[in-house]
Amino acid sequence: MAERANGVTMRGKPLTLVGNEVKAGEKAPDFELVDNGLGRVKLSAYAGKVVVIVSVPSLDTPVCDLETRRFNQEAGNLGENVAVLAVSMDLPFAQKRWCGAAGVSHVTTLSDHLEASFGLAYGLLIKELRLLARAVIVIDSSGKVSYIELVKEIGDEPNYEAALEAVKKCAAG
């Protein structure tokens, strides 16, 4: 499996990313995650939609909480042909609890805790922590990655405006 040393940092400390790095223009690799009801969900279930994947280390941390709430707020205005998925290594029970407490209803939380299927397919699994790196991926309705931002420092937020612009472009075209 491919490894990228110094793929991201946490408080300035370099961390290794494991898996195949995905780039804009490539076909989005499929993956299988667990939803809040313990059902299995694949990316292919969203075929024909624009998909926004918000990859976060843990919903129970301040930046991940803030980011996912922001995408939930924005998702309400993106239309029915856009699916926003928040993916983390958190257990489905923790994700469900967090969604209830945060009032999140426009974002679907999915867990990668079982097999790291998403993390490995997108090169976002942090080797030292077995958590996901912070990233935003936009997949167009034909299944191609149109935008990807890997946030270098885990404690930083993504560029919301750039991600939302990419989503709107995909939804319009």
Protein model, in words:
This protein is of the alpha+beta class and 173 residues long. The chain is built from 4 helices and 11 strands, in the order βββββαβαβαββββα. 25% of the residues lie in helices and 30% in strands. The strands form 3 sheets. The chain has a 5-stranded mixed β-sheet. The longest helix has 14 residues, at 62-75. The N and C termini lie far apart (35 Å). The mean pLDDT is 95.
Average of per-residue pLDDT values: 95
Q: How helix-rich are the residues, as a percent range? A: 25-40%
Contiguous helical run count: 4
Portion in strands: 25-35%
Sheet having the most strands = 5 strands, mixed
Quickly give the structural class.
alpha+beta
From the 3D coordinates, which CATH architecture would you assign? 3-Layer(aba) Sandwich
Domain count, please report it.
1
Low-confidence stretches are: none
Adjacency order of strands in the biggest sheet: 7-6-5-10-11
The beta-strand count equals 11
The radius of gyration is: 15 Å
CATH class: Alpha Beta
Amino-to-carboxy terminus distance: 35 Å
Quick take:
The chain has 173 residues and is of the alpha+beta class. Helix content is 25%, strand content 30%.
Spell out the blueprint of helices and strands.
Blueprint: E1 3-10, E2 13-18, E3 32-34, E4 40-42, E5 50-55, H1 62-75, E6 82-88, H2 92-102, E7 108-111, H3 117-122, E8 125-126, E9 131-132, E10 135-139, E11 145-150, H4 160-172
Parallel strand pairs: 5-6, 6-7
Antiparallel strand pairs: 1-2, 2-8, 3-4, 5-10, 8-9, 10-11
